[in-house]
């Protein structure tokens, strides 16, 4: 009795690679949403402040790229086929920094930017969601 042919190493690796690519999803990419920093027109102030904006801490439900939806019954779910442009805490931090920069009244940075801040902004995101209404 003769055995089945043994596939070559190259054939096995090609099959694994094809399976991995197929498993990565062949459908359309999810819609990506971003937050916008407002442009503020403020008069110049005397003295420039330095603000250090830390990445916000967040509850588990919002600490991702997924967009949270609170249904009319109060259940938390995620918006299908949609995502934030980055993890929500990182996105909020970036837009807050951009907002302060847009005022022209403060030097702004992140912890580790070697800034000696006059102020530190620490935040905790407990809810950031789309609310479904009936």
Q: Give the overall average pLDDT.
A: 81
In the sheet with the most strands, the strands line up as 7-2-8
Derived from helix and strand composition plus strand pairing, the structural class reads alpha/beta
Continuous helix count: 2
Strand runs, count: 10
Dominant shape: elongated
Listing every helix as H and every strand as E from the N terminus to the C terminus, the arrangement reads HEEEEEEHEEEE
Radius of gyration of CA atoms, rounded to a whole number: 24 Å
Tell me the helix content. 10-25%
Low-pLDDT stretches:
3-23
> What distance lies between the first and last C-alpha atoms, to the nearest angstrom?
70 Å
Fraction of residues in β-strands? 15-25%
| Main sheet specs | 3 strands, parallel
Q: How does this structure look, described?
A:
- This protein is α/β, with parallel strands linked by helices and 134 residues long.
- Helix content is 23%, strand content 23%.
- It has two helices and ten strands; from the N terminus they run αββββββαββββ.
- The chain has helices spanning 9-23, 88-103; strands at residues 31-33, 49-53, 57-58, 68-70, 76-78, 82-84, 106-109, 119-121, 124-125, 129-131.
- The protein has a three-stranded parallel sheet with strand order 7-2-8, with helices on one face. It has a three-stranded mixed sheet with strand order 5-4-10, with no helix packed on it.
- A hairpin with a 5-residue loop joins β4 (68-70) and β5 (76-78).
- It starts with 8 loop residues before the first helix and ends with a strand.
- The model is unreliable at 3-23 (pLDDT under 50).
């Amino acid at each position: 009795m003769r055995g089945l042919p043994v596939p070559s190493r190259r054939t096995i690796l090609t099959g694994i690679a094809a399976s991995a690519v197929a498993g990565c999803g062949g459908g359309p990419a999810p819609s990506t949403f971003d937050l916008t920093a407002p442009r503020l027109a403020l008069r110049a102030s005397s003295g420039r402040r330095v603000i250090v904006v830390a990445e916000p801490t967040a509850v588990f439900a919002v600490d991702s790229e997924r967009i949270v939806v609170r249904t009319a019954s109060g259940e938390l779910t995620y918006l299908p086929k949609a995502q934030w442009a980055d993890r929500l805490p990182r996105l909020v931090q970036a837009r807050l920094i951009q907002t302060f920069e847009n005022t022209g009244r403060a030097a702004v940075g992140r912890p580790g930017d070697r800034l000696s801040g006059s102020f530190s902004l620490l935040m905790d995101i407990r809810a950031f969601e789309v609310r479904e209404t009936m």
